[in-house]
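User: Hey, my collaborator sent me this sequence without any context and asked if I could get a structure. I don't really work with proteins. Can you help?
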Amino acid sequence: MATPTTSPPARLLRVDAAAEILGVKRSTAYEEIRLGRLRTVQIGRSRRIPTEYVEEYINLLKRESN
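Assistant: No problem. I've predicted the 3D structure and written it out in structure-token form, which is a compact way to encode the shape of the chain:
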């Protein structure tokens, strides 16, 4: 019996995927990127958000709420 293969979780997220994880609209994610609050990396012509940058952004929001 073959075992199903599972792929590792993505470490580089598209902006729309990161926005969904964060529970914000795509336009909000792009605005936060423009403001420099949500960091990205450039791959070719597209932007990707490493999962650690999503965590970094969440921590920023937590600090600001205190």
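In plain terms: The chain has a mean pLDDT of 93. You can pass these tokens on to your collaborator as they are.
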